[in-house]
Protein 1
Amino acid sequence: MVSSETLFWETMEKLKALGASSILVLPIEKMMEWIAMSFNTIIDWNSCTAEQQRQLLMRPAISASESITRTVNDILDNVKARGDEALREYSAKFDKTTVTALKVSAEEIAAASERLSDELKQAMAVAVKNIETFHTAQKLPPVDVETQPGVRCQQVTRPVASVGLYIPGGSAPLFSTVLMLATPARIAGCKKVVLCSPPPIADEILYAAQLCGVQDVFNVGGAQAIARAGVWYRICAESGQNLRAGQRLCHRSETSGEPASGRCGDRYARRSVGSAGDCRQRRNAGFRGL
């Protein structure tokens, strides 16, 4: 059995490969304990002490170091210069996957749908209906007031033209993130909605994208996905938004320098409606907080 110390240093090396120069978390003994308990270990919650329960619920925070910023900037520049060739190299390096077709075909999405149970599909449909009900009620009515004769003041809400969704990979498919990001964008009237996720993309995510009307899905993750989305559909142009669940390298790709086709706007998953609307008078003011 691999010791907790070995797991710790292996994890450190992986983080360093991603450009993380330091980790700001727990004392090293606690960190090793956390890592040892995190590797697919079944934990009896009731047998844990209050402190152990607190540790289990924590995410190790990686410092936003200059090395991460440099790594992300290098990725952005490389993707801008070399395009899809750079994407395939990063997929092999970070995701350990060889990607032949970057865009997921309609046939692949249909096949993914066939592999899912009817019970899960029904549950997703119910979730979409609930999300639609809430966010439809949240839409802002237009305001048109004549403050004095000949003077009219208006507040008009318009959707952004294009939206890019980033869905993280990992051990659990975050299809709920797809539902909670894509549905408000559709309700708001965004004309173009695309999705990027690290390969291989889970069937649940592909089906959720289809269910919510996402036009295109791409087999690409990380900072390189954010960079390439700007080139593909000008999502990072002034009128567009990137929506994602939080992840350090992706966040740095959206906030460091100028991405591939202009400055990116960013909205976290919990602020999904803020991403879908654009208020001219007070930008996104009525849509931001959930």
Protein 2
Amino acid sequence: WGQASGGQVLPIDEVAACAGTLGYELMCALAQRVPVLVQP
């Protein structure tokens, strides 16, 4: 769900697991002011 400082892609489910939640909940919690870039 982004990139680490070394350029490695961070999947949203890994970030969510570290935060003790689900990827879906992270996406739902984004405010409109946060830019979202979707790459295929």
Protein 3
Amino acid sequence: MKRYKNVGNRDINGILLLDKPKGISSGLFLNKIKKLFNAKKIGHTGTLDPLATGMLPVCFGKATKFAKYLLHSDKRYKVSAQLGVSTDTFDSDGTITSVSPVQSNDYILEQCLESFRGIRNQIPPMFSSLKYRGLPLYKYARKGIHFPRKPRSIHIYDLSLIKKTENIIELDVHCSTGTYIRSMVNDIGEYLGCGAHVIELRRLSVGQYISSSMINLATLEAIFYNDSFDDVQVFCKLDAFLTPMNMIMLEFANVSNEKC
């Protein structure tokens, strides 16, 4: 069944709290959502790496004007890292660059985590979407070209150990915008003298939005591909997942003096 054959792109407004699956870029994921909703205007509020899963707020129509406020909101993550192995991308998608014995104990690990809490400078990774001369840094990095990057001030509000199993640690991270979890894990590995890289990363919250409010792609696609629904029914069912503009205006009361 071909959807929206005789329907133009829709002017819809609201915020959709998506649970991004692993293995897809934020850009490609956004394109899928735009097609499912047949939306005219759509934008997300900060990228997640292909390896990462979790919350990706997507703004439709008039709600896109609030995207910058979500982009600059604090975030919370759960990250699993392997100690003793470093990669060029700082995660398991990259090439291994070093392998070292892990000699840290629980006391040293807690000292390490304590040193990362608070305001600190962080150097963004070369494998990132930050741009240099109009191109994202990862395109240079893939060619083996590296540039010095200026440190950026970030704030780690909380960093706690959930569990440690052999050389795998699982951390809970509450941080400011602009924080690269991959870089933080790599820096933790350097502090411990053994190297480390991200093997799993999940974003749990963005600002006031929490994980229990997320919807996954499979649920949306089940509605879209259900032949028993006509286009109007599909629109109604999909749009029901959107946070409406009146609620958004209340949630962002400090900036709602802007015209919508």
